[in-house]
TrEMBL record:
Catalytic activity: isochorismate + 2-oxoglutarate + H(+) = 5-enolpyruvoyl-6-hydroxy-2-succinyl-cyclohex-3-ene-1-carboxylate + CO2
Name of the protein described by the UniProt record: 2-succinyl-5-enolpyruvyl-6-hydroxy-3-cyclohexene-1-carboxylate synthase
Biological function: Catalyzes the thiamine diphosphate-dependent decarboxylation of 2-oxoglutarate and the subsequent addition of the resulting succinic semialdehyde-thiamine pyrophosphate anion to isochorismate to yield 2-succinyl-5-enolpyruvyl-6-hydroxy-3-cyclohexene-1-carboxylate (SEPHCHC).
Family of the protein in this entry: Belongs to the TPP enzyme family. MenD subfamily.
PANTHER family listed in its UniProt record: 2-SUCCINYL-5-ENOLPYRUVYL-6-HYDROXY-3-CYCLOHEXENE-1-CARBOXYLATE SYNTHASE (PTHR42916), PROTEIN PHYLLO, CHLOROPLASTIC (PTHR42916:SF1)
Residue stretches making up the Thiamine pyrophosphate enzyme N-terminal TPP-binding domain: 13-124
Keyword annotations from UniProtKB, A to Z: Magnesium, Manganese, Menaquinone biosynthesis, Metal-binding, Thiamine pyrophosphate, Transferase
Pfam families cross-referenced by the UniProt entry: TPP_enzyme_C, TPP_enzyme_M_2, TPP_enzyme_N
Named cofactor requirement(s): Mg(2+); Mn(2+); thiamine diphosphate
GO molecular function, one term: 2-succinyl-5-enolpyruvyl-6-hydroxy-3-cyclohexene-1-carboxylic-acid synthase activity
Length: 581
């Protein structure tokens, strides 16, 4: 058997087994050393391949695609710094628990550490940011070796998706020549392979025993004022319904982060307090509404005012429910972790006698929520503000679509102004490491598996990843970008750095002074530049009727934006505290 046949059978068996285990998408970046993997994926009829030139963009595209499909996505790149360009997205995938399968080509061992081109040390390159690393064996085509590659493929899918999902890394040393021969018979088959030979094991879900559930409820006896907090959540579509049912039975308010998936959909929202970020901006309100206990599902909410609230209540018993494992409690407060499936946990509690919590406490939160909504939803400015942009977007965003949100001010404005909605809208964001990098590519990746995605982000995030637009154009992805352009880092205007005008603009404001309409022209996008909220709604609706890429650019002023937001927060606090008095 010659080298080409060995390489063909080795690579084809790996790719075939990856697909047998449910991988439906692969993102390929062009390169020479990765030729065997790229060709094998492209030849196999069971997978969709996406070719993205820049590995950094490719990795974030895969991240968005994996978030949208809720399943593992494979990536292929050549050796050298191409691999290193995956790093930012790998870090994000690690912290946001997204399954990626990184397949990196490498020089064979004799060409390492000898000055060969495109040869860097790729072993354990991503360190602890991957769940599993394997240096693959030099290709052979024996029965044992083909069993080996199938086992590694199957295991990589399992590990990426089991427990808390995350990235895995397999490194392939390939010798030249690198081409494959698809005329060979039976290259996708293996003699020792049967339908169930290498499928990953079945995973159960963690549940508390009846004694554990009763012990938990006993911890709450004598307490009256509790809070359920839902931060960025997993992908269980039943969870919003179950936690809403629990909150209603127990008469507890739910402080719901926009990424919890509790603000949108058909489940009951009578106890969902979506304006809590605006409410907790005020120190007096935070003091007045000190809880007796907190039950949190998911990661820490986006809201910084909620973070202040928690820090000011270090002695309040806090219970954090996690699916599998982990320690997501950045305040350092004393916390009881409950490792159980959230849906089963809620269902178990619903079957027990309900505690007698304060109904008045719930009513007070509901009344505050209505007050805040009245202020957030009223008033029309002559020129659109950033909050009005989110408000207008919510009114026209299509049913059964995805909203992908950038970091910094974009996700905070969604937190404040994207209120409860009966429409079925999935809200995604990269809140693992919270960086602004890769946002366009992430939104494009989500759009690759969705009928319609709306990406909301600021001008710095847009500029940082503009080459992500190429995939949108090349593949005709339906993506509407709501670009909020305040000519710089708008979030810094809310922070103490803004009090130092001498260096603020150069170091933090960082104005770009770019005409993004030219970028729209270069990538063949439909371009809109609305000036009012009504203009915005009209332009967004028009974009949703179009195919491909649309960019709706809203121009705002950073200083005016800060004043407008603060006036809203102050008006909310004034009315609530006046009524309390």
């Amino acid at each position: 058997m010659d080298h080409t046949e060995i390489l063909t059978r080795y690579t084809a068996n790996f790719v075939d087994e990856l697909i047998n285990n449910g991988v439906e998408h692969v993102i390929i970046s062009p390169g020479s050393r990765s030729t065997p993997l790229a060709l094998a994926f492209s030849e196999h009829e069971g997978i969709r391949e996406w070719v993205i030139i820049d590995e950094r963009s490719a990795a974030f595209f895969a991240l968005g695609l994996a978030k949208q499909t809720k399943s593992a996505v494979a990536l292929v790149c050549t050796s050298g710094t191409a691999v290193a360009n995956y790093f930012p997205a790998v870090v994000e995938a690690h912290y946001s628990r997204v399954p990626l399968i990184l397949l990196t080509a490498d020089r064979p061992h004799e060409l390492r550490d000898v000055g060969a081109p495109q040869a860097i040390d790729q072993l354990h390159l991503f360190g602890n940011y991957v769940k599993w690393f394997q240096e693959m064996a030099i290709p052979e085509a024996s029965v044992e070796m083909l069993s080996y590659v199938r086992q590694k493929a199957s295991r990589s899918v399992y590990i990426a998706q089991e427990g808390n999902p995350g990235p895995v890394h397999l490194n392939f040393p390939f010798r030249e020549p690198l081409t494959l021969d698809f005329s060979l018979e039976g290259i996708w088959e293996h003699k020792a392979y049967s339908e169930n030979s290498y499928r990953y094991p079945l995973d159960g879900k963690k549940q508390l025993t009846l004694d554990q559930l009763e012990a938990f409820i006993n911890r709450l006896k004598g307490k009256q004022k509790g809070l359920i907090v839902c931060g960025p959540q997993g992908d269980d579509e039943i969870f919003p319904e179950k936690v809403a049912e629990l909150a209603e039975q127990w008469r507890l308010p739910i402080l719901a982060d926009p990424l919890s998936q509790l603000r949108t959909g058909r489940h009951s929202k009578g106890n969902v307090i979506e304006t809590y970020d605006a409410l907790l901006k005020n120190e007096a309100i935070r003091e007045r509404f000190k809880p007796d206990f907190i039950i949190r599902f998911g990661a820490m909410p986006v809201s910084k005012s909620y973070l202040f609230f928690i820090k000011e209540n270090k002695n309040v018993p806090q219970f954090i429910v996690e699916n599998h494992s982990g320690y997501r409690e950045p305040t350092g407060n004393v916390t009881d972790f409950i490792f159980a499936d959230p849906v089963h946990f809620c269902e178990g509690l619903l079957e027990l006698d309900k505690p007698n919590f304060s109904y008045e406490w719930l009513q007070e939160w509901q009344a505050m929520n209505e007050t805040a909504k009245n202020h957030l939803l009223t008033g029309v400015e002559e020129r659109i503000t950033e909050g009005e942009a989110i408000r207008g977007l919510q009114k026209v965003i299509p049913e059964n679509s995805t909203l992908y949100v950038g970091n910094s001010m974009a996700v905070r404005d969604v937190d404040t102004f994207f209120l409860n909605d009966e429409k079925n809208i999935s809200i995604l964001a990269n809140r693992g490491a919270n960086g602004i990098d890769g946002m366009v590519s992430s939104g494009a990746g989500a759009g690759a598996a969705a009928e319609r995605v709306t990406l909301v982000l600021g001008d710095l995030s847009f500029f940082h990843d503009m080459n992500g637009l190429h995939a949108v154009k090349h593949y005709g992805i339906n993506l509407t970008i709501l670009l909020i352009n305040n000519n710089g880092g708008g979030i810094f205007s809310f922070l103490s750095q803004a009090e130092n005008p001498k260096h603020f603009e150069a170091l933090f404001g960082t104005p770009l002074n770019l005409e993004f309409s030219k970028a729209a022209e270069m990538y063949g996008a439909n371009y809109f530049n609305p000036e009012t909220e009504e203009d915005l709604k009209r332009d967004l609706e028009e974009s949703y009727q179009m195919r491909g890429l649309s960019i709706v650019e809203v121009m705002t002023d950073r200083e005016e934006n800060v004043k407008w937001h603060r006036s809203k927060w102050q008006a909310i606090a004034d009315e609530i505290l006046t009524n309390e008095g």
